[in-house]
Write a structure and sequence with these properties.
Elements (H helix, E strand, L loop, with lengths): L2 H18 L8 E4 L8 E4 L1 H10 L16 H4 L11 H15 L20 H19 L1 H4 L6 H5 L44 H5 L22 H18 L21 H20 L22 H5 L25 H6 L7
Antiparallel strand pairs: 1-2
Helix pairs in contact: 5-10
């Protein structure tokens, strides 16, 4: 074999390896989840599933404290959100939050040593807002979280900043690009499964009301609701959903008619409530914190970190595979009633 031939074979092999790098090798596990003939199946890679299961083990249960005794707001200073808990419950909740969010940094991650009432540390302001956000999810969004609910650990998993927090992709430098504005796509972005779809469906669809649709309801296009650009954006969001939950499209859609609600499984309705919930969390809680966060906590474009589906789910169809941690913690179940907390909380959840 000549040198040129060997070189050609090597280059072909490397090219094939590069093309297959994003593929998953067999064997795969397939489970029928719909009627026969509808191609409604869940396909899983057992090697990936094992890693996801290991990453979604709930932490050891902690003592929630006794409800007896004086209330925290009557003993401690500047308790704006959890003041209606007993002092024992309040202390236990703080211990739990430290274990869930800052196990290495400890209490001083959010508090000034020797003066826990001080609000000068920005992380304390953020933590208070996040507690209110958790209360809102558990009290107002049972259509999505049911009675399982969420805790700080659902997103943080022992990290001060959740690993699946969403930041906008790096903005295109239009000054040095001769092909025009790519509109955030045609880059094979990891955020949309290495597809050429728009790389930021979260800011587009989960911070504000926006129509999510790939097909119109009339023979002719009206209002560009389902334009090619809108269709690509919708597909980008669907890729995020699928990746975030570790499921196929048929987890929420009937493959014989993706657009039909009547033929869709109930998970589609649950997901619809989840979409509205995430919009509520971003507009009511995360985006307002942009003025509080330091520059090193903002995204590459100076943007505020956002909640996305992956923030809670982290590859599992149910966060922590449905472990019901929230029920143990009364401070995370109902909205705070103190005047300061009531002024800071959103008026109501959108319908």
């Amino acid at each position: 074999m000549s040198l040129i031939t060997r070189t050609s074979v090597l280059l072909s092999t490397l090219a094939a390896a590069a093309l297959l790098a994003g593929c998953e090798r067999p064997p795969m596990d397939t489970k029928q989840i719909g009627y026969r003939g509808t191609a409604m199946e869940q396909v899983d890679n057992p090697r990936i599933v094992a890693a996801k299961q290991a990453a979604n083990v709930p932490p050891a249960a902690l003592d929630p404290g006794s409800p007896d005794g004086p209330k925290a707001k009557d003993v401690l200073q500047n308790v704006q959100v959890l003041g209606d808990l007993s002092l024992a419950q309040f202390t236990a909740q703080m211990v739990a939050i430290t274990a869930w969010v800052s196990p290495e940094q400890g209490c001083n991650y959010c508090h000034v040593a020797g003066n826990f009432a001080d609000d000068s540390v920005y992380t304390k302001v953020v933590a208070r807002k996040m507690i209110q956000m958790t209360q809102n999810v558990n009290a107002n969004w049972k259509q999505h979280v049911a009675n399982t609910g969420v805790t700080c650990y659902t997103c943080h998993r022992g990290n001060p900043v959740p690993e699946q927090t969403w930041y906008q992709p790096v903005a295109q430098d239009l000054r040095s690009n001769f092909i025009g504005n790519r509109n955030g796509q045609n880059l094979a972005s990891p955020s949309v499964g290495l597809a050429s779809l728009p790389a930021d469906p979260i800011t587009t669809y989960l911070t504000q009301p926006a129509t999510i649709r790939v097909g119109g309801t009339t023979p002719l296009p009206t209002g560009h609701v389902a334009s090619i650009q809108a269709t690509e954006g919708t597909y980008a969001l669907m890729v995020h959903f699928s990746t975030a939950l570790g499921v196929n499209c048929t987890a929420c859609h009937n493959s014989r008619h993706f657009g039909s609600w009547d033929q869709s499984p109930p998970q589609r309705t649950t997901a619809w409530h989840g979409i509205n919930m995430v919009r509520d969390l971003n507009t009511g809680y995360t985006l307002p914190l942009g003025k509080v966060l330091p520059a090193n906590r903002l995204g590459p474009n100076g943007d505020t970190p956002l909640v996305a589906c992956a923030t809670c789910h982290q590859g599992a169809n149910k966060p922590l595979y449905g472990a019901a941690m929230a029920a143990t913690w009364p401070g995370l179940q109902t909205l705070a009633t103190t005047p300061a907390a009531a002024a800071a909380a959103p008026a109501s959840a959108p319908q």
